[in-house]
């Protein structure tokens, strides 16, 4: 039973760490726009390669 | 630029119709923070990820823009930039993409509600954490029932108590505060038995822990809080959504006006700064925000949103333009005849408030259930205590049994019964093309037995379409060369039919008459019969005449098409047992034609906003529950007064704010709306039934003293799960094709 002296505080600390992360997420506005955030992950913000961008990139690494 | 195709206006997935007219100058709403300028806009019609990327990329591509972030849930676009970019250019960039845009007055924001929602979410998180950890300890206590030493059990109980105390103090606040507030006014609500159960459960458990007793209810108290806060949070979220609809109305009223100062200097000011007598300018394409008397200029004004009349009217010096109308062709200047607070728009705003107050008397099913519930729970617990005590059981044991009764009967399932169904039904409706504006909308729509439609823009598309199919292509393309220069709805319909092409030289617009210009070196005219020298038309709908040089005038006929889905929708609504009626502000001829086509026997034409309200009151007096469907400013009063109301996605902000549900993509979502609402009400009643049955079973067990903490934990989580699953079952079942 003496193990409980360590185990209970460890369990509580881990739980508290999770709670702290949740509090941070709420404060940082992570739950403000669930629909937008769901879409945002699918957005491709890369700009299409233009000729000048292709010229700047290394010839060896570019796809043929 | 973006990878998204820019050839279509509005939502690329067609979830909302394009809108983009009447972007007013948002310059007075720019806030300066350090070197950065900041602006918040409300964007209407943004519905999907493609809209999001399109708007953000287009705005971010403007010179000097640091951040552009659109909140898809609330439609708020926050932009910050440095340098001399004009606010109007930002707004125009968004409206050119086909989205409605209005400056957002951040002073009238919903900061309070946002804070409330956030604090509920935090409270829920804390309660969840505490429940999980105390349950960990409680399970060991229950599991080690026989072997565990008394000292170990006492330590575990003490640790549980140490977790429970701060949780109760933090997460319990919303309930304690609300209970205290109603008790002060000598009334009661659901929070009173909740607070009592929490406090008693905690105190009894502390006493038991000190005494080294077997049962402590710390886990039950925290779990109770957790479940209740889930319900509370969902409810707050639905409410905030409804509130943001009301905020749209404020955004509409916070538009800007161009004021002409002495000396001819034009400046952009907020609408509320306009005083009667100020000289103001109404540019083409702009919507009037205050009523004005024209002193200079003549133009055509689209007042379809004010009166429901589908064709624009000619306005000249000395006439009064109502707030809410859109100027189409020439700049108009004049004097404001009323401050923005006294203008027609605000009158309608007040009609909305009056209607909402009348409707505010509606009591939700959940409230009714609670008012039955509270006295029963309290008296049961009291009788249990007295019964056991008088029967000779000790004071401590009697209190313990009474408290366990109070805990087990606490309305977890009741608190979840309605909000979960609302969230599920709202999600289902959203996928079907309709979204709800208020939490109790479902219950009210479910009760409706009569539908009143507006005509223009609701049953019909609201935009004229060229119907002269047999016309020579040459005439069409020549006429379109003139029409491309005008904003008049008929010109636009003509341009739409002709497709892209060149513009005629020297096109001049004569308000009230038509257009003239030079096509292929020949002077041409496009306009009314008198102006082009043609005889009167025998066509019922709108007509234009085109004259090419000295040739005979050619007639172009237009019709306002009925929505393709209208006939089927009305048949479906009838099948659902609803009566159908049209009340329109348009000419009787136009209304009769539509009513005849759709087979609707009962219709009223040339109805003013007041007439519409009166007709609804009459129907209500007959005991009918009316579902009003309309889009115009002239419908707003009726929308607010009706038992429930719906507006198409293309409707004016004010009408959307006034109604319970907004639908897009034709009329098809309306039967779905009615069906889902009825189903949701049924599931809610089922859930309350479950809660009642649960209590019928659990209360005798508790009263007899068998409700140990383990039984309480199982019963509480079990009943909450059943209620949630029942709501989800409804969702899965209705996913199947009907």
Textual characterization of the structure:
The complex is a heterodimer of chains A (64) and B (738). Chain A is mainly α. Chain A is built from 3 helices and no strands. The model of chain A is unreliable at 58-64 (pLDDT under 50). Chain B is an alpha+beta fold and 738 residues long. In chain B, the strands form 5 sheets. A 7-stranded mixed β-sheet of chain B has the order 15-27-26-25-16-23-24, with helices on both faces. Chain B has a 6-stranded antiparallel β-sheet with strand order 7-6-8-14-9-12, with no helix packed on it. In chain B, a hairpin with a 4-residue loop joins strand 3 (65-71) and strand 4 (76-81). At the A-B interface, helix 1 and helix 2 of A face helix 1, helix 3 and helix 4 of B.
Structural class of chain A: mainly alpha
How many beta-strand segments of chain A? 0
The largest β sheet of chain A comes out as: none
Mass-distribution shape of chain A: elongated
Radius of gyration of chain B, in angstroms, nearest whole number: 32 Å
Q: Which protein chains are joined by the largest interface, and how many residues does each one contribute?
A: A-B, 28 and 27 residues
> What amount of the residues of chain A lies in strands?
under 5%
- Strand portion of chain B, in percent? 15-25%
Main sheet summary of chain B: 7 strands, mixed
Average per-residue pLDDT of chain B, rounded, comes to 79
Count of helical regions of chain B? 24
How would you state the average pLDDT of chain A, rounded? 75
């Amino acid at each position: 039973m003496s193990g409980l002296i360590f185990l209970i505080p460890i369990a509580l600390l881990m739980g508290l760490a999770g709670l702290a992360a949740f509090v941070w997420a709420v404060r940082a506005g992570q739950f403000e726009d669930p629909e937008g955030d769901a879409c945002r992950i699918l957005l491709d913000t890369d700009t299409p390669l233009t000729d000048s961008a292709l010229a700047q990139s290394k010839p060896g690494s570019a796809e043929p | 630029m973006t990878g998204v195709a820019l050839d279509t206006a509005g939502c690329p997935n067609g979830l909302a119709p394009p809108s983009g007219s009447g972007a007013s100058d948002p310059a007075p709403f720019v806030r300066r923070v350090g070197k950065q300028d900041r602006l918040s806009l409300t964007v209407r019609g943004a519905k999907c990820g493609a809209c999001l990327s399109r708007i953000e990329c287009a705005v971010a591509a403007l010179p000097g823009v640091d951040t552009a972030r659109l909140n898809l849930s609330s439609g708020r676009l926050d932009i910050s930039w440095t340098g001399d970019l004009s606010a109007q250019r930002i707004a125009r960039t968004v409206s050119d993409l086909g989205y409605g845009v209005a400056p957002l007055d951040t002073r009238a924001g919903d900061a309070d509600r946002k804070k409330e929602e956030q604090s509920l979410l935090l409270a829920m998180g804390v309660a969840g954490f505490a429940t999980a950890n105390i349950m960990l300890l409680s399970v060991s206590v229950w599991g080690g029932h026989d072997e565990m030493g008394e000292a170990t059990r006492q330590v575990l109980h003490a640790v549980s108590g140490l977790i429970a105390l701060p949780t109760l103090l933090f997460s319990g606040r919303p309930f304690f505060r609300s209970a205290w507030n109603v008790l002060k006014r000598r009334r009661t609500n659901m929070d009173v038995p909740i607070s009592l159960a929490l406090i008693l459960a905690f105190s009894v458990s502390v006493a038991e822990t000190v005494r080294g007793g077997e049962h402590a209810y710390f886990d039950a108290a925290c779990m109770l809080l957790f479940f209740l806060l889930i319900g509370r949070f969902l409810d707050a979220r639905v409410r905030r959504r409804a509130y943001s609809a009301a905020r749209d109305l404020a955004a509409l009223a916070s538009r800007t006006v161009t004021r002409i100062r002495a000396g001819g200097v034009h400046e952009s000011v907020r609408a509320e700064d306009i005083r009667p007598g100020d000289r103001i300018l109404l540019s083409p394409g702009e919507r009037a925000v205050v009523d004005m008397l024209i002193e200079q200029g003549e133009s055509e004004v689209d007042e379809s949103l004010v009166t429901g009349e589908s064709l624009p009217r000619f306005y000249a010096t000395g006439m009064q333009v109502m707030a809410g109308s859109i100027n189409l062709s020439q700049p108009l200047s004049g004097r404001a005849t009323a401050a923005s607070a006294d203008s027609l728009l605000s009158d309608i705003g007040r009609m909305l408030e009056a209607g909402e107050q009348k409707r505010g008397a509606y009591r939700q099913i959940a409230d009714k259930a609670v008012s039955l519930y509270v006295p029963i729970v309290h008296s049961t617990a009291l009788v249990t205590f007295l019964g056991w005590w008088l029967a000779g059981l000790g004071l401590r044991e009697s209190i313990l049994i009474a408290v366990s009764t109070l805990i087990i009967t606490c309305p977890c399932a009741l608190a979840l019964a309605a909000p979960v169904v609302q969230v599920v039904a709202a999600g289902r409706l959203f996928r079907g093309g309709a979204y709800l504006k208020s939490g109790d909308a479902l219950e009210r729509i479910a009760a409706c037995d009569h539908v009143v439609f507006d005509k223009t823009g609701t049953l019909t598309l609201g935009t004229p379409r060229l119907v002269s199919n047999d016309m020579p292509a040459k005439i069409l393309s020549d006429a379109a060369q003139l029409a491309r220069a005008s904003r008049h709805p008929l010109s636009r319909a003509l341009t739409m039919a002709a497709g892209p092409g060149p513009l005629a030289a020297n096109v001049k617009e004569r308000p009230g008459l038509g257009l003239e210009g030079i096509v292929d070196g020949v002077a041409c005219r496009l306009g009314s019969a008198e102006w082009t020298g043609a005889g009167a038309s025998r066509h019922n709908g709108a007509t234009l005449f085109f004259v090419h040089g000295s040739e005979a005038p050619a007639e172009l006929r237009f019709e306002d098409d009925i929505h393709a889905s209208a006939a089927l929708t009305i048949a479906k609504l009838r099948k659902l047992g609803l009566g159908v009626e049209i009340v329109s502000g348009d000419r009787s001829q136009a209304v009769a034609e539509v009513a005849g086509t759709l087979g609707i026997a009962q219709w009223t034409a040339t109805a003013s906003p007041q007439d519409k309200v009166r007709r609804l009151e009459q129907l209500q007096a007959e005991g009918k529950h009316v579902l009003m469907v309309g889009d115009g400013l002239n419908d707003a009063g009726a929308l607010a007064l009706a038992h429930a109301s719906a507006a198409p996605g293309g409707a004016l902000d004010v009408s959307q704010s006034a109604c319970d549900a907004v639908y897009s993509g034709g009329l098809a979502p309306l039967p779905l709306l009615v069906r889902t609402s009825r189903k949701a009400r049924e599931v809610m009643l089922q859930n309350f039934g479950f809660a009642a049955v649960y209590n019928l079973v659990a209360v005798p067990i508790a009263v007899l003293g068998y409700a140990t903490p383990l039984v309480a934990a199982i019963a509480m989580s079990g009943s909450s799960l059943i209620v949630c699953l029942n709501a989800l079952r409804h969702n899965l079942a209705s996913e199947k094709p009907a």
